[in-house]
Amino acid sequence: MLKDNCDESCPVARANGVLGGKWTTLIIRDLLSGKKRYSELQRSLVGISPRMLAQRLSDLDAAGIVSKTIYPTVPPKTEYELTELGGSAHNVIGAMAKFGQILAARD
Questions:
Q1: The domain containing residue 99 runs over which residues?
Q2: How many domains, the chain?
Q3: Taken in order 98, 99, 104, 105, is the CA torsion positive or negative?
Q4: Is residue 53 part of a domain?
Q5: Does any domain span residue 47?
Q6: Positive or negative CA dihedral for 28, 98, 18, 50?
Q7: 13 and 57 in contact (C-beta within 8 Å)?
């Protein structure tokens, strides 16, 4: 059962601390289908700046949600994928998609 107050032990606040940043859930949504290069994410997320994408990926990497692999090629190739922890957000993203469909049906 969820508590009504929101302190440091609140699981919703803890999840929001990781997932609550702008673009974060959309990055996770894109990575649910598998590894992506930075440029693939940039194209998919229309309107995100390169700086913001780099920052969000760095934040997700630091939180253990995303892993980054750099291949020693010229030019360097970098791929991002969800960790096991990141993959556990699948149900959250699915619930958001269902809620979004409900909102769209009201319009």
A1: 17-106
A2: 1
A3: positive
A4: yes
A5: yes
A6: positive
A7: no
* Residue 77 DSSP SS3: strand
pTM for the full predicted model: 0.87
What CATH code is carried by the domain that includes residue 72? 1.10.10.10
Residue among 72, 73, 70 at smallest CA distance from 81 = 70
Q: What is the mean pLDDT of residues 69-94?
A: 94
Please, which pLDDT band fits residue 23 given cuts at 50, 70 and 90? very high
Is residue 2 included in any domain, yes or no?
no
Is the pLDDT assigned to residue 77 strictly greater than 80?
yes
**Gap between the Cα atoms of 97 and 82, Å rounded:** 19
What pLDDT, on the 0 to 100 scale, is given for residue 14? Answer: 86
Whole-number Å distance between alpha carbons of 60 and 26: 12
Beta bridge partners of 69: 79
- Is 82 within 8 Å of 68 (Cβ atoms)? no
Asked if the structure places residue 93 within a domain, the reply is: yes
User: What is the mean predicted confidence (pLDDT) over 26-44?
Assistant: 96
